[in-house]
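Kindly draft a polypeptide, keeping tokens residue-aligned:

***
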Amino acid sequence: MQKIGITGGIGSGKSYVCDKFRQQGLPVYDCDKEAKRLMVEDKEIIAQLKKVVGHDVYLPDGKLNVQLLAQFLFMSSENQLRLNMIVHPAVKADFLRWAERQTTDKVFIESAILFEAGFRDSVDLVGFVSAPMETRIQRIMKRDHTTREHAIQWISRQMPDEEKRKLSDFVIENP
């Protein structure tokens, strides 16, 4: 089975590309969605997040306190690194278990931070989804109902597109 990573910066259109694969009957593992699931289901992640962020990272009903988590992440790059060290290994292991259960000859993993999260060694090929910067900014603003400044801030926190392009095996232009 061939494992193919699909990456690209926020707002590049990774989800759009992966939806096209799903429409063709190909399985796609969505790292963002699965990370959110694991953060409320995996007991080890829950314990570690409470230790690192504080018990208030979970609401009384067990849901993730997304606002508090976002504040924690934006406070420092060290906080982001600490959270990534908790979540990324669990997501990677979950992806590999998921891939083993698939019955197709190709599976895809969608991840904006495929290289940063250390997933490169778990896939055979990486496709980089590219879109013009202004298009990405507009998509983020529309999707997240946020400001231009916030969209640019999110983009600036990710690995530059030029680096991802160089590390990828093929490019999908998504204007």
Q: What stands out?
A: The radius of gyration is 16 Å. The mean pLDDT is 95.
